[in-house]
Amino acid sequence: MGVEIEVEGLTKSFGKQLIWGDVSLTVPAGEICVMLGPSGTGKSVFLKTLIGLLKPDRGSIMIEGTDIASCSERDLYEIRKLFGVLFQDGAMFGSMTLYDNVAFPLREHTRKSESEIRDIVMEKMDLVGLIGAEGKLPGEISGGMRKRAGLARALVLDPEIVLFDEPDSGLDPVRTAFLNQLIIDLNAQIDATFLIVTHDINTARTVPDNIGLLYHKHLAMFGPREMLLSSEEPVVRQFLNAQRVGPIGMSEEKDADELEAEKDQELPPLPPIPMQQEPSNGIPRRSQRAPGEWCRENGVTPPPGSFEPNMTMAVGG
Ligand SMILES: Nc1ncnc2c1ncn2[C@@H]1O[C@H](COP(=O)(O)OP(=O)(O)OP(=O)(O)O)[C@@H](O)[C@H]1O
Ligand SMILES: [Mg+2]
Fold first, then answer.
1. InterPro entries of this UniProt entry (predicted)?
2. Hey, where are the domains in the chain?
3. How far is the CA of 87 from the centre of ligand 2 (A)?
4. Which DSSP string corresponds to 143-182?
5. Global pTM?
């Protein structure tokens, strides 16, 4: 059913360099969240902290009553079994076939027989559309196939939480669209909690139930997709709509001169909020909300043209 992750007052630095401070958010059970942020704001560090690979300076990460930030190695080992992680490059063993790569966690962490392992591996390969490619080596397949193989491997232990670090980096737009559909379909099917780090604005606008934005060493905003897509907060507005006008510059923050120069520039209007992508079988996901529901409940008027079916993306400016 997926489990909730409750992060409270989380702070992480390396030596004197603060990466982010006082991050608090709740990743709801079974929902899809996207974490955004300029390069170097510590998104990967955040994911690594959630699985206990990095220790925060302060704060807590509660998962099923255990605090990942302070628990024993033994508890951490148990909690980690709840996670499936898709690393940025797929992180496949180059000398092993896709079959052996996907079977690896099962051989490492379970006592299942080879025939049981075969059933699970083939089921997950089928799920990600890789039947027929089991015998290939990672070097013999495309980047998109490697991502899907990495996803199959992240799923073999039936995770309650799946973390994706830029699953769409290096993919062409069509493959990204297929991967996004796969993520939605998987969430509908396994009901696990998904947290996706991405730079793809279209993914952020159409896939998740919730969006977070890391900026300038803190969590600028975290909440339902419609809340961020209708937000007038300058950093959120600029980032989610891929606009040049706003506080974010080429090297993170614009300086006073740059901001002064654009102060009379009119902001382009907020683009319409697109429909959330739906499972391909048409059956709504458990955590799916009706289009416009958050806006209605919170008295927010969405930008004109929002929630029209088959609306094309309109970002930039
Ligand atoms: N193990 C480490 N030791 C010291 N500094 C680190 C370590 N890991 C990450 N950092 C620093 O933390 C900062 C954030 O890195 P991180 O990889 O999380 O960024 P990111 O938001 O994922 O960026 P990108 O979008 O480019 O992937 C960087 O300045 C990086 O140099
Ligand atoms: Mg990263």
1. AAA+_ATPase, ABC_transporter-like_ATP-bd, ABC_transporter-like_CS, P-loop_NTPase
2. 95-151
3. 10
4. HHHHHHHHHHHHHTT--SEEEEESTTTT--HHHHHHHHHH
5. 0.90
